[in-house]
Design a protein that fits this description.
The longest helix has 20 residues. This protein is an alpha/beta fold. A hairpin with a 2-residue loop joins strand 9 and strand 10. The protein is built from ten helices and ten strands.
Length: 256
């Protein structure tokens, strides 16, 4: 049986002035796959995430989600509604909101009621607010954050802030989750816990995950396939163990 390609990127390029930040980038990620994107600082990894999420518009190339939805050129909001969500290298939470509301706010696209329903507190408003409260709490339980639901997100320890950001992204109900250096700033125990969390996300939500990461223990521990980027171009691509043994990868990224 043919494997379903969840995310297909063909000949993707972007120029800033006369500089090719990403050139002729190709990528196929299978449904429910844990996929890694690595490379030296400045290689173009975050630029690719920005292209995939509509922050940047590609100069050339195509991005197709689930074989039917071409998303290159669409806005960030449109792409999120179609099925791609992301986190950021520098955690971005609503610091003044509590943990529960950070997740609840991401459910707004799923549970919609009119402005008038909200103003007059009509039955639809109360019904949808209750559903959002329940679903937000269920997501927090998945990430073992239910006991911090009433705490301001800014007061969470770093590792739990990262979990909350991932939970909020999942609340938008994506098909593909992009994680930008999720282990950045984490200690060894937090990184191990994060590895288990990412695997749980894939299995529980039947989600495809693409992550940028510099922590090779995490990459080896969860990524099934890998693309190595260098100076905006693909240096190597394939099964993780094979790619990490590639002499050009060792020379350019891992160090001889």
């Amino acid at each position: 049986m043919k494997e379903n390609i969840m995310l297909s990127v063909k000949n993707l390029s972007i120029q800033f002035g006369g500089l090719h930040a990403v050139e002729d980038f190709n990528l196929d990620i299978k449904e429910n796959e844990l996929y890694g994107l690595i490379g030296p600082n400045g290689a173009g990894k975050t630029t690719i995430f920005n292209l995939l999420t509509g922050v940047y518009k590609p100069t050339t190339g195509s991005i197709v989600l689930n074989g039917v939805n071409r998303i290159d050129g669409k806005s960030t909001v449109e792409i999120n509604k179609i099925g791609i969500a992301r986190t950021f290298q520098n955690i971005r939470l609503f610091d003044k909101l509590n943990v529960h509301d950070n997740v609840k706010i991401a459910l707004q696209n799923k549970y919609r009621y009119s402005t008038m329903s909200g103003i007059l507190r009509l039955p639809r408003y109360h019904r949808y607010e209750a559903l959002m409260d329940e679903e937000a709490m269920s997501l927090l339980e998945v990430f073992n954050l239910e006991n911090e639901a009433a705490m301001k997100s800014a007061n969470l320890p770093y590792g739990k802030q990262r979990k909350l950001e991932i939970a909020r992204a999942i609340a938008t109900n994506p098909k593909v989750l992009l994680l930008d250096e999720p282990a950045a700033g984490m200690n060894e125990n937090e990184t191990k816990e994060l590895m288990n969390t990412i695997k749980l996300i894939r299995d529980k939500f039947n989600m495809t995950v693409l992550l940028i990461e510099h922590d090779m223990k995490l990459v080896k521990g969860i990524c099934e396939e890998l693309t190595v980027l260098n100076f905006g171009k693909v240096l190597a691509q394939g099964k993780t163990d094979e790619v990490l043994q590639n002499k050009e990868v060792i020379k350019a990224y891992l160090g001889e």
